[in-house]
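Here is a complete protein record:
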Amino acid sequence: MESRRIELHPPAKINLFLRIVGQRPDGYHEVKTLVTLLTLEDILYIELTPNQGVVFECNDPSIPCGDTNLAFLAAKFYLEASGSDLGAHITLEKRIPAAAGLGGGSSDAASVLLALDTLHSHSLGQGILHSIAASIGSDVPLFLGQRATWCHGRGEILEAAKFRYFEDRTAVLIKPPFTVEAQWAYQRWSNARKILGLPYREQSSPWGGIYNDLEIPVFEKFPILGLIKQWLLSCQETECALMSGSGPTLFAILRQGAASRELETAAALEFGNDLWVHTCKVQLPQP
């Protein structure tokens, strides 16, 4: 077993496509979604300790530090599954907004599993890691592979994406100052109605269809998100725009060579300075 401190950079994700296929007997929804990763990342440090148990620290006081934190659970479940007589100390520096549809908590959890498996000389292996990840949350398994992925089932059945079209492509992320609970969005989906005039239709792109079923319930409750998406689509810099996951973050992938600075400034002027606006790169899928 190795004994050292590991630093990892859990990435955020965006959903380029999200279709709800149906309701599952276990209460989850069957989905088909295409996810790619961003250069927006948290910073996570983890080390083994001689005392059993998990200690979790975070620079964001709003992040829970116990059993409701996915990274904490990942460490707890890994140590139990491996039979380790050691503990873990996790220090997390949050850069990905929480409850934003960007998968930050799930990505942190996956990085904890990967780090602990490295520190334990890969004693569990990918199959068990995937099972632990799926037990923590539907989005956690996709972050184990650190690549663009098609996700099926409730999100735990993975298929590597085969496109390579993100060379030097920029994404602008916009998040209003509120959150959306993913469970609510899925439960509301079947009874939600589209708001006349808002842009829901599937967009074409070099990466296939761009669409998100969860825009229907979320835009119904928060019409401002539909208006922001409509505005993004009207900007000449934008190739495509969509809400990521259950939101409320919207993203615009810019045209090749387009600059983001004017779009960032215009967004604040159009919708107010309380928006969180961030520019990053879309990670190129690995071969």
User: Anything to note?
Assistant: The domain at 170-205+214-281 is CATH 3.30.70.890 (Alpha-Beta Plaits).
